[in-house]
Specification:
With 622 residues, this protein is an alpha/beta fold. The chain has 20 helices and 14 strands. A hairpin with a 5-residue loop joins β10 and β11. The longest helix is centred in the last third of the chain and has 38 residues.
Length: 622
């Protein structure tokens, strides 16, 4: 009896038996490749070779993304990917991104192929409203990819007119705008947080969804917060009412990550079966990861009928995080035969680049064993595993690294160094997915040359670290002029720092400390005079070697000990900063200044908002 063929490499999309069992639409891979794959000579010469069928399946043309209609999807197998990295993901402690960083991440999310980008919570601050508006204007109107895809741009709001007005002001500039509004529906939330009756909650939800539609927004998403712990009959009722009021998407959140996969799948199935009018809306999932089940719950929801999945890059988010985009998307791709042919519009070859970009700009690095994008995800150290891999990769890898863009070959053979000119460097930036204007490029190129003079070869990782440090920084209130530090075993460490203010005035601070970094931070504190608490400090080497660039990340909060303004709203807020340099002290100083600039900008915005409110109050009283 002939032995069964080895399971083909790279998931069910490359499994001939599985693909044959699917309808033609479902069997085709929905992930367009950046470069065409070719069969090796050995494989091409042997059609029965297990890799032959695998690669042929990869070469199959993907189905087209269905035309976007807010309240329906013409292809029942298509699953919309709703990315909330810039909203829920940014709520991770210390993960605040600047407006420039948010814009560059949003561009990359569009290239990745996400259907909806939740760009922020516009009512939370004037800066967030401006950031969402910028994303709506640029990313929300710029076609990307061969199919000219333009993502929906979404803004979050609570169920009140002020929030909804702010959200609409931010997203209305996009070609496909969406308002996402929510209110809690679980008994514990209604009783202890809202202090409202179920009847009052239903009335508010109906009124606010109708109000959002009345502004001219054709696409309104409604979320019953803490749906996982809400009464089922009450859920059916409130969802029916918001559908009548104009909701086009019904998002079902497991807000505290409480449910198990079979429970959450049944919740979605029950909502689909028992909610009147559900055929006029899309069911969505939003799963938190408190019990480590966010991705599993999300997949259970999709299997039960949800056709929008809310996820974040690297799974970042509140508390333990959210369902991970890369895990959910690759699971759908790999196990399509068990999910009735579901597929997404994600170009999976952009996953690695997007993951690295979010890590760089959020300051939240993934653990080495993180599924799909962790440093060890495709590493094999066991002798038995290595032996199997050398004989046939499919023995221990179900996903090809190429499928997520892990190996990024340089199409032009360019190796950057000190002799590289502007054209080569600009080409490399485009290849890495970064678009910056001429002034930003000249600022970056100056830093690049400084590093290239000291390093034989400048890697992609070096480029990304320098970009983050030079371009994607908060509004510059204080910039670094010079820093000089001394340290050793013969006495106290000392540091002298020169900072340059907005008006060009130079200020110098000198201090001592337990080490050169502590001394430099004390010198900066002398100049800026904002009391802070350093909550986290971390440094990593971008690449190997003694000449590697060091990237530093810090997390600070305002020290409110004895501060009369401790209840002003920014007392407990964390601000992250990152810096990069070949000198570890300079890298540390840049990171600290980045965080202080964020804090200073936020304090200025809060104070300006308070003054404006006071002015309005005075005029009203007059």
């Amino acid at each position: 009896m002939a032995s069964a063929p080895a399971k083909p490499y790279c998931c069910s999309s490359l499994n001939p038996a599985a693909s044959a069992a699917l309808p033609r639409r479902a069997a085709l891979s929905p992930f367009p490749a950046a470069k065409p794959r070719r069969l090796s000579a050995a494989v091409a010469a042997n059609p029965s070779h297990p890799r032959a069928a695998a690669v042929r399946a990869c070469l199959a043309a993907p189905p087209r993304r269905p035309e976007y209609v807010p309240d329906r999807i013409d292809d029942p197998n298509y699953v919309r990917i709703f990315d909330t990295t810039l909203r829920d993901g940014e709520q991770s402690p210390g993960a605040t991104m600047t407006s420039a960083e948010k814009l560059v991440v949003a561009r990359q999310l569009a290239r990745l192929g996400v259907d909806i980008i939740e760009a922020g919570f516009p009512a939370s601050s004037p800066d967030d409203l401006d950031a969402v508006r910028s994303i709506a204007i640029e990313v929300g109107n710029t076609p990307v990819g061969d199919d000219g895809h333009v993502p929906v741009i979404c803004g979050l709001s609570r169920c009140n007119k002020r929030d909804i007005d702010a959200a609409w002001e931010a997203v209305r500039h996009a070609r496909k705008p969406r308002i996402h509004t929510f209110i809690a529906t679980s008994e514990i939330h209604m009783q202890h947080k809202l202090r409202k009756t179920p009847e009052q909650v239903v009335a508010i939800a109906k009124e606010m969804v109708a109000y959002a539609r009345s502004l001219g927004c054709p696409d309104v998403e409604f979320s019953p917060e803490d749906a996982g712990r809400s009464n089922r009959e009450f859920l059916y009722h409130i969802l029916e009412e918001v559908i009548k009021a104009g909701a086009t998407t019904l998002n079902i959140p497991d807000t505290v990550g409480y449910t198990l996969p079979h429970e959450f799948g049944k919740l979605i199935a029950d909502i689909k079966a028992n909610t009147p009018g559900i055929e006029n809306a899309i069911i969505s999932t939003h799963c938190q990861n408190d019990l480590g089940l966010a991705s599993a719950n999300t997949l259970a929801g999709a299997d039960a009928g949800a056709r929008q999945l809310e996820v974040t890059i690297n799974g970042i988010g509140e508390r333990a995080g959210n369902a991970s985009l890369e895990e959910v998307v690759m699971a759908i791709k790999c196990r399509r035969e068990l999910l009735d042919g579901l597929y997404t519009g994600i170009n999976s070859q952009h996953i690695t680049m997007t993951s690295k970009m979010v890590q760089e700009h959020s300051g939240l690095h993934v653990q080495p064993h993180k599924a799909i994008v962790g440093a060890n995800a495709f590493a094999h150290e066991s002798g038995i595993h290595q032996d199997g891999m050398l004989k046939f990769k499919g023995t221990y890898e179900i996903i090809s690294p190429d499928d997520i863009g892990l190996t990024r070959a340089n199409e032009f053979g360019i190796v950057l160094g000190k002799l590289s000119g502007r054209h080569a460097v600009r080409t490399k930036l485009v290849e890495l997915g970064y678009e910056i204007n001429d002034k930003e490029f000249e600022d970056f190129f100056k830093r690049y040359k400084e590093v290239a003079e000291k390093k034989k070869r400048v890697t992609d990782e070096d480029i990304e670290a320098l970009l983050s440090d030079e371009i994607f920084q908060p509004k510059v209130i204080w910039s670094l002029g010079d820093v000089q530090a001394t340290c050793g075993t013969l006495g106290l460490s000392t540091a002298t720092v020169k900072l340059i203010g907005l008006d060009g005035e130079e200020k110098i601070g000198c201090s001592v400390g337990t080490g050169p970094v502590d001394a430099a931070y004390n010198a900066i504190d002398q100049i800026i005079q904002i009391p802070t608490v350093l909550k986290e400090y971390g440094m990593t080497s971008v690449t190997e070697g003694i000449d590697a660039i060091a990237t530093t990340r810090v997390l600070i909060t305002r020290d409110v000990t004895g501060d009369e303004h401790s209840a002003s709203g920014y007392s407990s807020r964390s601000f992250s900063g990152s810096g990069a340099a070949m000198d570890v002290v300079v890298s540390s100083v840049r990171a600290y200044l980045s965080a202080l600039n964020k804090m200073s900008s936020f304090i200025g915005a809060v104070n300006a908002s308070s003054e404006a409110q006071e002015s309005i109050s005075v005029k009203t009283s007059e």
